[in-house]
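Weekly structure sync, notes
Attendees: PL (lead), two postdocs, one rotation student
Agenda item 3: pending single-chain targets
PL asked that the sequence for the first pending target be pasted directly into the notes so everyone works from the same version. It is reproduced below exactly as submitted, 196 residues in total.
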Amino acid sequence: MGLRKLTYFVGTTIDGYIAAPDGDFDFFTPHVTEDYLPFLTTEFADTLATPGRAALGVGDAPRTRFDTVLMGRGTYEPGLAVGLTSPYAHLRQIVFSRSLATSPDPAVEVTDEDPLTAVRKLKQEDGLGIWLCGGADLAGQLLPEIDELIVKQYPVVAGTGIPLFRADFAPRAFRLAESRVFDGGNVVLTYAKASD
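Predicted structure, written out during the meeting:
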């Protein structure tokens, strides 16, 4: 069996920000248009949060792409703040944090393990793909292990905010594998890690 892939599937602005400086990303919501929503609910239902899956009628949809989600504390925190302790209950959830000592939910694994080491172990296990949900710091640390980058680019410029990656300057090549343009101006770009 081949190695599982790590995919960074994330929404960004045209200028490469995944969230506002305070972590909010609600400004993307108006750009989830009629032609775009079915794409998310069919091809990427695995990446919808549990309440969203229920609201969109895909709560019982089988997992097709991912069975594990990785996130940093900053990505996990907004859900936690509103009482959503298990945001992706249909997936194995792993939160990387040096400050969160214990998990607030038995369905969520909290670890302070080195992310690269953890991902290399996860890739050896059988299963579907591994989804890197965010954020910028974790993505920066995991860049050497990212096999696929799927960027949902929304037609908005933020000016500043949380970048796609927060890492030292170290250019890495990816090749464009697919691009899709939606009527509302959303573009989904799928990149594969270029051969070394």
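Discussion points:
- The chain is about 20% helix and 30% strand.
- The mean pLDDT is 94.
Action: rotation student to compare against the earlier draft before next sync.
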